[in-house]
Design a protein that fits this description.
With 246 residues, the protein is mainly β. The chain has two helices and 14 strands. It folds into three domains: 85 residues; 62 residues, Type Iii Antifreeze Protein Isoform Hplc 12; 52 residues, SH3 type barrels, CATH 2.30.30.760.
Length: 246
């Protein structure tokens, strides 16, 4: 081999060794933009924060999640992270699924659903013994005990509200006083003008109606929508206020 050929070979090998080796089948990797990882523990904190908001609306109720199924960790772009939570049922307590929308700097980047049930423990009025239909309620008939509100329709919370009222049906010892079992004066009277509220998620619509029946809190009554002149089956929510499910 001539001197010139040896020199050319040495220069070629020197240049070759100056570049990083890449094995066949291994592509070069390039780092992408930084990301923020949202872990299940952080998702649970958002949900607990949502529960704290609901507790402020029901201060006498102990709220907690049961059968909470958290998703796996996921990545979102960097920035100011916020979370908007919407229950599957506007009444919240009946919800079995919660939608979580994650936003970074105000822009939606992730939407997930979390399955869970709510336990809502509160003091309600129960019977101290078996009571017959027609009984006029006295103090010795009533005591307070903690029950899960999800298992009840419209319980009575205050024993004073029951005193002097008449039972519409017989109750066994330890049974909760549901408002439907007690003869209360009607909260809404037939012919009264009421506000009808229909809500589904963030959508809320109100209209004026006329009650076609008397009704106490929690009762289902017929209400005529004044605008459409159509009759609706509504739930008595309060004085001159009824709700209808969409």
């Amino acid at each position: 081999m001539t001197f010139a050929l040896r020199l050319t070979t040495i220069l070629y090998l020197t240049c070759l060794l100056s570049f990083p080796l890449m094995r066949a089948g291994h592509a070069a990797t390039v780092d992408g933009p930084p990301q923020t990882v949202v872990k299940p523990e952080q998702i649970q904190k958002y949900l607990e924060g949502y529960l704290d908001q609901q507790r402020s609306k029901m201060p006498q109720t102990k709220l907690r999640f049961r059968h909470l199924r958290l998703p796996k960790a996921f990545a979102v772009p960097p920035g100011r992270l916020t979370c908007e939570i919407t229950p599957s049922d506007p009444r919240v307590l009946s919800s079995s699924r919660f939608s979580l929308i994650f936003r970074v700097d105000g822009r939606a980047v992730k939407n997930i659903a979390v399955s869970a049930t709510l336990e809502a423990l509160a003091q309600v009025a129960i019977t101290t013994g078996d009571l017959r239909r027609g009984t006029i309620l006295r103090e010795e008939h009533i005591e307070l005990a903690e029950r899960d509100l999800n298992r009840l329709r419209a319980p009575c919370f205050d024993s004073d509200d029951l005193l002097g009222k008449r039972l519409k049906r017989s109750l066994r010892k330890g049974e909760v006083f549901e408002r439907s079992a007690v003869a209360f004066p009607p909260m809404i009277k037939r012919g009264e003008i009421v506000t009808i509220t229909a809500q589904k998620g963030a959508l809320k619509v109100t209209a004026k109606g006329m009650a076609k029946q008397n009704g106490s809190a929690g009762d289902m009554i017929r209400v005529r929508n004044i605008s459409s002149q159509k009759d609706l089956i509504c739930k008595v929510a309060g004085p001159v206020a009824v709700t209808v499910e969409l």
